[in-house]
Amino acid sequence: MGGQATEAALAAVAAAFGVRRRAVTLVAGASSRTKILDVEGAEPATLSRLLADPGADVGADPGAARTGTGVGEGAGPGKT
Q: Which letter does DSSP use for residue 61 in this model?
């Protein structure tokens, strides 16, 4: 599939968080079903809402989701 499924997933995550596609970066899991993403500019409250509402779930593993406000910024206090 040449990464088409991964690209579609990244676009769906961007839409769910209300950010541009380029704000979503694949950190790990390019060839795995489990992906770790960084969503630049995402609000932690949006992540909480998405995880709490199964109908809004984009298929992310809650343990693998994280949000960031800058390139290279990892999970830390107050971030998931």
A: -
Helix (H, G, I), strand (E, B) or coil at 36: strand
**Per-residue pLDDT tens digits for 32-70:** 889 999 999 999 999 999 989 866 545 444 444 455 544
Q: Tell me the whole-structure pTM to 2 decimals.
A: 0.64
Compute CA 9 distance to the chain's CA centroid, rounded to the nearest angstrom. 9
Number of folded domains in the chain?
Answer: 1
For the chain, the first-to-last Cα distance in angstroms comes to: 30
Q: What is the C-alpha to C-alpha distance for residues 43 and 39, in angstroms, rounded to an integer?
A: 9
CB 23 within 8 A of CB 40: yes
Whether 14 maps to a domain, the answer reads yes
The residue among 73 and 46 whose pLDDT is bigger is 46
